[in-house]
Amino acid sequence: MQSLIKSGGSALTEPPKGSVLDFVRVKKEEAAQKKDRKPKKPPKPETPPPAMEQPQMDSPTPNAEGSGLDFGADVNEGLSLDGGLALESGDGEYLPIVKVAPVYPRRALSRGIEGYVIVEFTVSKQGSVKNPFVVDAQPADLFNQAAIDAALKFKYKPRVVNGEPAEVAGVQNRITFQIDG
To answer: pTM for this one?
Structure first.
């Protein structure tokens, strides 16, 4: 930039004065050195390790004849295993599988109101909830819809009677609304 200003109006027709240096790098030949790295064998021990003792068994015979334990089972001949041994095959009560927490109503949350709702419903043959209704609520009518919506999302293992699922009416569940923290 400075040479342009110093030269003024003269055109750059003349080659620049001075010597130009050219750097040429010559590649140096290198030979890779390889080392033979093999692990050395450990020296042989002078004395062999001591012999280990035979462990003592509780029973002198491996089939445990003299152990005094009876592994026999009394099998009833009239027992039928046609349905298999799965959990669903035997008779049993309904069991809760999924219980969804209710959505706290915004109006009650902003006012800091807590309470509970007792909901009664029917557990269907498929384990879903049918016909929920409010039995008792404190305070009245504030948490009812949130409790019913939560109860409709509950899932149960249905009651099994004689190998067939059956409906269960009159199931009650208390849903408590508390502000945490």
So the answer is: 0.49
Please name which of 158, 155, 132 lies closest in space to residue 145, comparing C-alpha atoms.
132
- Give the Cα separation of 8 and 57 in Å (integer): 110
Which residues share a beta bridge with 121? 171
Do 172 and 96 touch, CB atoms closer than 8 A?
no
Nearest to 143 by CA among 99, 113, 173, 181: 113
Helix (H, G, I), strand (E, B) or coil at 181: coil
**What are 150-174's pLDDT values in tens digits?**
999 999 999 998 888 999 999 999 9
Residue 132: which of 146, 115, 113, 111 has the closest Cα? 146
Using CA atoms, how far apart are residues 145 and 98, in angstroms rounded to an integer? Answer: 19
